[in-house]
Amino acid sequence: MIDLHLHIDGSFRPQTIYELAKEMNISLPADSVEGLLPFIQVPEDCRSLEEYLERFTLPLQVIRTPAAVERVTYELLIDLAAQGLDQAELRFAPKSCAGTADQKEIVEAAIRGLNRGIQETGMKAGLILCAMRGNSFEDNMETLLLVKEYLGKGVIAFDIAGAEIVFKTHLYADLFAKARALGVPYTIHAGEGDGPESIKAALDFGAKRLGHGIRVYEDPELMKRVRDEKIVLEVCPISNLHTKVVDDMKDYPLRKLFDYGILVTINTDNMTMSNTNLKKEYEFIKKHYHFTDEEIKQMNETAYRASFIK
Ligand SMILES: [Zn+2]
């Protein structure tokens, strides 16, 4: 099993959040790990993206030192191996975790954690470094140059995450032109918070993979383009349910996109916030969208082929 779309800062152990907060003297809303869960996991009936994003507040307060980044990256690989995964692409935004350190120190810490995890588990894994929508051009360029510097040394690709509807994808043309010039592989979060225009911009930048991309269904012409250009969608069903990509999950277009011939893969996005894992995602789409084991196997094979890990 393989996960192509998994955020480190959305996927670490509640116990670790608790311990790091204690070490850092951060006041907690509850004095037990169980008590913390409502503050870091979305409720099953999550009503809005805001309610979802609130759950990042506490994790992002504690993942702000190189030591914390190394620890959570390592622990995540241990957890994924225990769940039966043999390959994973872990992503995070170094700037968001930098605290008083610089991005380079944070990336090196994540690589240390990654290498320890790979050694212990035998998994294949790599890091995708995310620029952030809303960050300065300089900060995002710094992230991109770190991808270039550490490519093949733990880092596998570049991405941009954050508030897609506020900071539109087309604003980042220069950043991705630079990524292309540097020969850095990338994926782009597009078609989650924003619609077809965002996806078109990402494709015009030359992206061959899209984070989510699910809102391609709103534009039949674009669906055809995505299919014909063999663009791979990193779909995260339970996260999409929580962030209200569609108003009603019975209208969720996963089955439609798959049957149309678009290359769909299934991923978790944020295991802690969404209280999910890859097996849960598979069960979810079997139950609600009647995917068969054979179809899930096919999506897994698509993901292996599309992986930035070679
Ligand atoms: Zn994501």
UniProtKB/TrEMBL annotation:
Keywords: Hydrolase, Metal-binding, Zinc. GO terms for cellular component: cytosol. GO terms for molecular function: adenosine deaminase activity; metal ion binding. Its EC number is 3.5.4.4. The keyword Metal-binding applies. It is an enzyme of class 3 (hydrolase). Its cofactor is Zn(2+). GO terms for biological process: adenosine catabolic process; hypoxanthine salvage; inosine biosynthetic process. Residues 3-309 form the Adenosine deaminase domain. It holds the Pfam family A_deaminase. Belongs to the metallo-dependent hydrolases superfamily. Adenosine and AMP deaminases family. This is adenosine deaminase. It comes from Dielma fastidiosa.
